[in-house]
Amino acid sequence: MTESNHFDVLIIGAGQAGIPLAHDLAKAGKHVALAEEKDLGGSCVNFGCTPTKAVIASAHVAHLARRGNEFGLKIPTVEVDFPAVLERAKRILIESRVSLQQGFAKTENPKLLHGSAHFDGREMDAFRVAVGDQFIVAEQVVLDTGTRSTIPPIEGLDKVDLICAENWLDMTRLPEHLVIIGGGYIGLEMSQFYRRIGSRVMVIEGANQVAGHEDQDVASALQSLLEAEGIEFHLNTSVKRVESIQGNVKLTVEKDKEPFTISASNVFVATGRTPNTDLGLETVGIKVSDRGIVEANGRLATNVEGVWVAGDIRGGPMFTHTSWDDYRILLSQLAGDGSRTTSRVVPYAIFTDPELGRVGMTERDALDSSEEIKVARYEMKANGKARELSETEGFIKVIINAKTNRILGAAVLASEGAELVHLYVDMMNADAPYTIIRDAIHIHPTLAEAIQSAVKSFE
Fold first, then answer.
1. 360 phi/psi in degrees, rounded to 5
2. Quick one: pLDDT at residue 106?
3. What is the C-alpha to C-alpha distance for residues 374 and 383, in angstroms, rounded to an integer?
4. Where does residue 415 rank: exposed (0-12), middle (13-18), buried (19+ CB within 10 A)?
5. Looking at the chain, which residues constitute the CATH 3.50.50.60 domain(s)?
6. I need a surface site. Which of 201, 223, 224, 442 has the fewest CB within 10 A?
7. pTM, rounded to two decimals
8. What is the domain class of 3-148+274-335 according to CATH?
9. Which CATH number applies to 348-456?
10. Distance, CA of 142 to chain centre
C-alpha cells in the first residue's frame, strides 16, 4: 500500500453532500478522496431536480400558451417538440455536471476516483476499500451513495421497457398513453409534465389518496387540479401483471377485488426509492435496516466509529436540500466543533402547478400530538395578485400552537408555493410567533400577501 492510496477521509458518492464536503475537508487540511461510479452530481443533477424542473418549465409555457384567451391573447396552435424539450433539460444538467468536474480538474486534494466502491474489511484502525481496480485505505469513510427506483415485484414488469426516474430522459419518443404506477411526489410531477406536453396520462395508486404523507384536503385538492387537466386516477388499485403486446403494454389491475385491464403505450414506475447500500457494509459491521437504510445518530455517525452517512441512505427526509445540509453537519463533525446535528426544520415541495410548499407538521400530525393547536385556511382566489395573474387555484393552511403562537406547520398550495412557504420556514427556524408575519408590511400586490392573510384569521 503506497502513501498515495492512504487518505484521511474517503467519501463514497459524489452527490449533493459528497462534493462540497470533499472540497471543504481538503481546505481544512484533510487528505481526501471522493469515489464515484457514474456521473458527478448525484440524482439531483443527472435525472432528478435539475432536468425535471427544466422540462416542467417547458410544459408550463405550453400550458400558458393554451390559456392565451384568458389573457386576451390569440395563440392558434401550440406545437411541442418533445426531443427539443428533453435536449434543453440535458443541456442544463450537463452545464451543472461540467462545472462540478472542473472543480476536480486541477487538484489532487480532494482526489477524484472513478469506480464502484466496496468495503474490504479493516486494515489496522482504518478501513480497506476497493474502488474500481484499486484498493485504498481511509481513516474515516463517508457514505453518500443515494437511492435508485424501487421496481415492485409485479409479474411481467421486468420484461417490458419501463420508464423510471433514472431513464426517462433517454425516452425521446413522447408516450401516447402513459400509465404511472405510484401517486407520490415523483408520480404527480411527471403526470402533469407528460400530460401538458401531450400524452394521455393515468395514475394508479394503491392507497386511498395520492401524496400519502399529506392531509386529505391537500391531497384531494392536488388530485382535483390534475384531473381538471385530463389526468385519470385510480386509487385503492394494485397492478397484478404487465404484458408487452405488439409494442404496447397491457396491465391487469385490481380494485375492490375486481380485476380489469388497461392498455397503454408506456409504463412509468414511481413506487419509491431503494437505498444503494450494497457496499460490503457487513465486512466492517455497519448496521442497516430491513429497508436498506444505514442506521445513524443525529451526528450522522453510524454504529461503527469512523464511518459516517449522508443523503438519502441515512433515512429521514430524502431531499437534495437535506443532503446538502448533511454536508454541513459532517463538516462540523469532521473538521469543526461538532455542534451541527440533524435537529433541523426541513421544508419540501411538490413541483406540480400550482406547487405545494410544505414545512413541519400536517394537521393530522398535529392532532395526533399533545399540542393544543389552531388551524387557519386561506383561499388563494382571495389574493389580489393571484387574480391578476389568473392563478387562483389552491389554498394556504397554517397550524400553530394555541398557547405559544409558534408555527407548527404549513401547506402552501399555490402558484410559487415552493417559494412562498419559506416565510413560514424562517419563522420556524427563528422560533418566532406568527404575529411577526401578521404585523409586518408586505408589498402590494404580491402573492406573499397571502402568507400574511392566512395568519390574520387566527385573530
1. 70, -155
2. 85
3. 22
4. buried
5. 3-148+274-335, 157-271
6. 224
7. 0.96
8. alpha beta
9. 3.30.390.30
10. 21
